[in-house]
């Protein structure tokens, strides 16, 4: 295996561990194409190699193979920690909703201002006084 291929294997492994969700070889190829410069065949071979080495897991659904990080490498999370995370998610979601509502209100106000400015500009161009 060339240095480029082994570097690609390491990047694929790091990517799958970082994202920690299932991907097809096509998804990984599309997402990492610019970063590691591997072809699709090289990505498929690298992922199969990682699966054979036990560094990632593979599941076959018909003709499709799905790859994902080996979950045994991640620490277990207690119920208390999960509840904390859920509470934090709820807080952030509320904050996002509030900010989104504020943005919509500001956008509506901005559209009104644009309408008024456009009307003033048209009056200035025609020479009519307001």
* Unreliable parts: none
How do the SSEs run, as a string of H and E?
A: HEHHEEH
Q: What is the CA–CA distance across the termini?
A: 77 Å
Q: Could you tell me the mean pLDDT?
A: 85
Structural class by SSE content: mainly alpha
Using the CA coordinates, give the radius of gyration. Answer: 26 Å
Query: How would you write the strand order of the largest sheet?
Result: 1-3-2
Percentage of residues in strands: 5-15%
Q: Work out the number of β strands.
A: 3
Outline type: elongated
The main sheet comes to: 3 strands, antiparallel
Total DSSP helices: 4
Question: Fraction of residues in helices?
Answer: over 70%
Domain Homologous-pairing protein 2 winged helix: 11-69
Subcellular location: Nucleus
GO molecular function: double-stranded DNA binding; recombinase activator activity
Protein name: Homologous-pairing protein 2 homolog
How would you describe the overall organization of this protein?
This protein has 130 residues and is mainly alpha-helical. The model has no long low-confidence stretch (mean pLDDT 85). It has helices spanning 3-19, 25-36, 40-53, 79-126; strands spanning 23-24, 56-61, 64-69. Helix content is 70%, strand content 11%. Pfam families: WHD_TBPIP (PF07106). Belongs to the HOP2 family. Residues 11-69 form the Homologous-pairing protein 2 winged helix domain.
Furnish the topology, listing elements before pairings.
Elements: H1 3-19, E1 23-24, H2 25-36, H3 40-53, E2 56-61, E3 64-69, H4 79-126
Antiparallel strand pairs: 1-3, 2-3
Helix pairs in contact: 1-3, 2-3
């Amino acid at each position: 295996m060339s240095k480029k291929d082994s570097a690609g294997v390491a990047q694929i492994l790091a990517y799958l561990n970082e994202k920690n969700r299932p991907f097809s070889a096509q998804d990984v190829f599309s997402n990492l194409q610019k970063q590691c410069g591997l072809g699709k065949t090289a990505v498929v071979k690298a992922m199969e190699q990682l699966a054979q080495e036990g560094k990632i897991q593979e599941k076959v659904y018909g003709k499709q193979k799905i790859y994902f990080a080996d979950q045994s490498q991640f620490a277990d999370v207690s119920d208390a920690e999960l509840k904390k995370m859920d509470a934090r998610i709820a807080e952030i979601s509320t904050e996002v909703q509030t900010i989104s509502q504020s943005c919509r209100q500001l956008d509506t106000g901005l559209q009104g201002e644009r309408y008024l400015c456009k009307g003033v500009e048209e009056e200035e161009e025609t020479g009519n006084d307001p």
